[in-house]
């Protein structure tokens, strides 16, 4: 019985040893991956970077001062419109009724003025012939002046009504494209509520927000590079306006950059990173790596680094701002570590590397 137990133990040990050797042989037989490596750089450290958003230089949100139901909206998003073209028609039956009343009041005031003028002229002649007293002439003069005032008041009321009517038929303030439609036929339009938005395409600017620690280094006229994040393209522009107050901007200063003409397909609302060529002061240069080397797993971002045993090791990172084709590493990678820039085949943890 003891011999049988000893034989089983020896067999088990031999089996486990052979499995370990097979496993080791499998690991050792993994193919070597040819890779190119790089080290983090900080060559963009002499730039101040701020986030921004593209918008058309000429744009407008269309609203009205009149409350009423929308009768008609003859345009849709994407339509080209000309200056003066009808955009929205709002029900104005009550304003139209007021206009009729004002027109009637003008007719009445005009007739009263003519009659008062005749009386005034007649009493002037009678007074010159000593056939009327001074008081009678003064009364006629006062009556004539009041008639003129009533007619003027009626005319001013007509101007007011006409101004209100102009808000019932809203026209395009300039030629452009409809970019937003926020109300439909039959809806109630309220004063100040955005109804449509239009813009003139082709001429864009970037609105960037710069913190107070950096705003003093930015001035009008400087040329800047702008990275459009969604399409990963670089365009150029010039600073045209630098705000001197943070009121209503959340403690940051507004900077406007007019973009140069470009063939890049830009759209309003695209987010950007603006690189101001201004030397940083009292700041640590950022650790930058190529964005093409980033590995994404769900919401995690990382990069493969070269381990001490010359194998691939996935390192998770906390990333910051984008600088063109590079991205800032806030933590997870030091400036003297090598990371894998490109690989000829798929990388996995522990893969043997052949650095080219």
TrEMBL record:
Coiled coil: 106-164
One Pfam family hit: BSH_CzcB
Keywords from the named record: Coiled coil
Coiled coil in keyword set: yes
Superkingdom: Bacteria
CzcB-like barrel-sandwich hybrid domain ranges (all copies): 60-188
Segments passing through the bilayer: none
GO-annotated cellular components: efflux pump complex
NCBIfam families listed in its UniProt record: RND_mfp
Full protein name: RND family efflux transporter, MFP subunit
Organism whose genome encodes this protein: Lutibacter agarilyticus
